[in-house]
Design goal:
With 498 residues, the chain is of the alpha/beta class. It is built from 19 helices and 19 strands. InterPro entries: ATPase_NBD (IPR043129), FGGY_C (IPR018485), FGGY_N (IPR018484), Rhamnulokinase (IPR013449).
Length: 498
Amino acid sequence: MMNLLAIDLGASSGRVMRASFNGATLSLQEVRRFRNQPVYIADRMYTNLYSIYQEMKWGIAEVVKTHGQVAALGIDSWAVDYGLVDSNGHLLDLPRHYRDGRNVSAMAEVVDKLGKAELFLRTGIQLQPFNTLYQLYAMKRENENLLSAAHKLLLIPDLLNFFLCGEIAAEFTNATTTQLMCAGLREWDRELMAQLQLPDGLLPSIVPAGSALGYVRDRELLRMGPVSSTRVIHTTSHDTACAVVSVPTDGQHYAYISSGTWSLMGTVVAEPMINELTEQLNFTNEGGLGNYRLLKNVMGLWLIQETQRVLESVGEQADIERLIHRARMAEPFQFLFNPDDVRLLQPENMPDTIRQICVETGQTPPTDAGSLVRGIFESLALKYRMVLDELELVTGRHYAAVHIVGGGSQNQLLSQFTANATARMVVAGPSEASAMGNVLVQLLALGEIATPSDMTELVIRSVEPVTYAPRDVDLWESAYAKFQRIVEKQAESQRLSI
């Protein structure tokens, strides 16, 4: 039995997962879970990287103490955020959080300089204000001296790997999300950096997923237990890339939703799809394990997480099981909205912002938590339908089923709504998709499995997904027509407010 560790860092929580591999199946056990909450200092928003790193080390030490030697470990996380280290390997400042407000104006300025079409043509990446390109440009505007003092820019998994073993490298799948790489190539777009007067010497060498970086060398961790022979593997370090690796299908063409704080919906393609239609529809081409992920970012369960926070702040019981039960009992389709309204990216009050959108689009706002949550789930499911329609238009393919992986796959109500809205079978699971994909790439790197096809077979043997058949298709088809009209109204309302 081989012991491996997956350190899986999501946008709202982190987990240290122990994986056991017996040669035929793979099992996962959660060892340590911790919250990943941004830190607010003055008007700035940071990721508390020091806390994350300490939690990681405690989790690693706990596994070693209980189960003995760990053969290897890998880290995956959310994309785009980065830290800057100086020539002595010291972190210059806490990483700014991707939801920090400075990024929206930075993106507008970059787009004004270079144009949307040019940016997409060069990088193949969906224009989102949190992309590393705009974060870096915002830092240049805000504090150019900090950039001048930096030696390397490291994305979150790259930075944590550096803390563990002292090796500096940028892993391909995560590097592609930055909007700093040449589309379809494994190299940074240094011409783009020059046009924006950004220092391209900050960017480290790019390595493929599954690269072995070295062994654990963190001194405190070495004192905690015998980890000196634990390999640090640069797995598919973007959590969505990990999740897609663990989709339990051997079909060549499939649609997926990696469901968590964000919903990443798309398919797998051999090469980036960069054309007028994908630019117009704002698709992104992110690197995968020997392929590319053609997808869209949808706001996801962030809408529910922020709703829970606000409800709890006024004394309401807002655990997810209670909210889902209340949503089941609520009247259907009381209101709908586009979940990707930019105002929902970091609102002070999520329920109030949704109610404001309802008023602007001529709908009656929800007055109770059950109706509010049901409307969020219905709107998410209908947005998935919209993205699926666009995906089929772009690829010219029909997808008979939608695979939902990640924590959101455990939400039975949303999974059923997604089946209803898309009129497709939904296959839900595994729920720990990112951690499982993380470990699969480690096994590939260690030579325990030979090919990506072997990885898929191992997933199919190791998980039992749940399927949902579509119901009330005509009712949901009518709701989709209403949703499309509301999305247009919402967009027009935003245009008039600018």
